[in-house]
Q: What sequence folds into this?
């Protein structure tokens, strides 16, 4: 098995002229322009009659994907891996109920590197990666080098260098790499995509996206589980640490990286960092590890993206402050505005007797007529099957589409470049903050080819 080692990969690839250890971001990006494998924008793999999957990471998130995948027809699970034996054994027991084809599943736990042995020994078609953020890039890259398609939790990677490595590996190996942005499959998000495509809000001007979710309680997971690693990011990280849930849907409304438009620059500022320190002081002993961290990353981050066409996207992030959950999910066009949290719609000229003009929102029960008229066909087709699958059904629709696309040999709904563009907000917002709000240019992970990539259709 080839091992993921950034230096080896770069040496073997056409990037190899310069030692990887000396690469700076700009130098890497320049070289990347001449290092293309085959472009993956509308890539479709050969169809699979039976899709064989392996799973890395069976903590809070992985088990949901395992259930949603293995309860679909013509699927098989060949390997399960986690650091902890109890996670692996619990899920292998459940798997027996979900999927009769998976009785020979191989189980791996213990060492940090057993997932590499699993990839070699089980020969999966696809690998689901649901681990902590720092492991995403090495795991997706090694997965593709070992001949499987990679499906990774959000964010896809943490640095633009890692993102370039992922793009280059996907292009050289001709393997899918999808960051699984489940929010793009929410009912409202799908309906708004449908309404944007139908021109209901006219020409798109501006969007607002967010992940505002008070998650301080995760700090109670001290040794194991999400809070045990995520808490360190509030100290070490900078900027918007979790941009993709809000951004993925609005990026697809705007056809970002697909023919019409692309992210150009970003500016960013953060508030002071107060909430985590105070939560740690209040809830843990003074010599507890959470009280030894220096929480440097501002509680609330606000960034603005300017697109190639001159549109703007406000992106916010806050996992610390006491306020209700929101992803904003707002898209404003020349003829109206669609918004989320709560779901609200305002249309110039009003809507079918419910509203007379755009000065008041259509909301609450009045939205029923809108759902009737504009619910996305994919939601209508799949909702009854997937509504219990997690996050209001979006997780099940996403998994259904992943398997459907693989079995029919279709392009996936989210390509490797979208995963990189959406995730790149983290390092670029951090850099803008370091430079007192200076605009940062997005790397063009497509090397100009986004102009020839098809917009995501309204899938029926
Ligand atoms: N899309 C969503 O709605 C959503 C929701 C929750 C979490 N997530 C994402 O899912 C990912 C996982 O988050 P989580 O909350 O499940 O974290 P978690 O800590 O509960 O689970 C991660 C698991 O990965 C395992 N792991 C870590 N390193 C490993 C290695 N080297 N080999 C094998 N296993 C390893 C850990 O043992 C752990 O069980 C994160 O990227 C998170 O952002 C997404």
A:
């Amino acid at each position: 098995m080839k091992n993921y080692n950034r230096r080896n990969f770069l040496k073997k690839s056409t990037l190899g002229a310069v030692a990887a250890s000396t690469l700076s971001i700009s130098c890497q990006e320049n070289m990347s322009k001449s290092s293309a494998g085959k472009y993956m924008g509308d890539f479709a793999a050969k169809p699979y009659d039976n899709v064989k999957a392996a799973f890395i990471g069976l903590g809070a998130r992985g088990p949901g994907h395992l259930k949603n995948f293995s309860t679909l027809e013509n699927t098989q699970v060949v390997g399960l891996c986690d650091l902890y034996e109890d996670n692996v054994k619990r899920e292998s027991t459940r798997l027996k109920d979900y999927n009769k084809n998976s009785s020979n599943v191989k189980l791996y736990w213990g060492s940090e590197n057993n997932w590499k042995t699993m990839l070699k020994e089980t020969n999966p078609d696809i690998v689901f990666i649901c681990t902590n953020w720092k492991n995403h890039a090495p795991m997706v890259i090694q997965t593709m080098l070992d001949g499987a398609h990679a499906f990774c939790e959000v964010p896809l990677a943490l640095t633009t260098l890692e993102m370039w490595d992922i793009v280059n590996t996907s292009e050289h190996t001709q393997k899918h790499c999808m960051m699984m942005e489940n929010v793009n499959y929410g009912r409202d998000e799908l309906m708004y995509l449908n309404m944007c495509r139908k021109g209901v809000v006219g020409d798109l001007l501006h969007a607002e996206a967010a992940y505002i979710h008070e998650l301080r309680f995760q700090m109670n997971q001290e040794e194991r589980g999400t809070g045990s690693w995520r808490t360190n990011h509030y100290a070490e990280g900078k900027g918007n640490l979790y941009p993709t849930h809000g951004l993925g849907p609005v990026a697809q409304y705007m056809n970002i990286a697909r023919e019409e438009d692309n992210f150009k620059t970003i500016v960013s500022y953060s508030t002071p960092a107060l909430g985590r320190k105070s939560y740690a002081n209040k809830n843990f002993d003074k010599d507890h590890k959470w009280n030894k961290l220096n929480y440097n990353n501002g509680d609330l981050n606000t960034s603005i993206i300017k697109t190639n066409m001159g549109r703007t996207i406000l992106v916010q992030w806050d996992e610390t402050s006491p306020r209700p959950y929101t992803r904003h999910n707002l898209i404003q066009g020349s003829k109206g505005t669609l918004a989320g949290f709560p779901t609200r719609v305002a249309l110039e000229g009003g809507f079918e007797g419910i509203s007379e003009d755009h000065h008041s929102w259509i909301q609450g029960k009045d939205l029923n007529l809108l759902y009737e008229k504009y619910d996305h066909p994919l939601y209508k087709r799949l909702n009854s099957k997937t509504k219990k699958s997690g996050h209001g059904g979006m997780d099940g629709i996403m998994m259904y589409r992943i398997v459907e696309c693989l079995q029919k040999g279709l392009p996936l709904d989210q390509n490797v470049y979208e995963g990189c563009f959406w995730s790149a907000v983290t390092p670029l917002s951090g850099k803008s903050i370091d430079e007192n709000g200076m605009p940062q240019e997005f790397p063009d992970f497509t090397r100009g080819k986004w102009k020839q990539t098809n917009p995501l259709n309204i899938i029926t």
Observations:
- The domain at 184-452 is CATH 3.30.360.10 (Dihydrodipicolinate Reductase; domain 2).
- The chain has 16 helices and 15 strands.
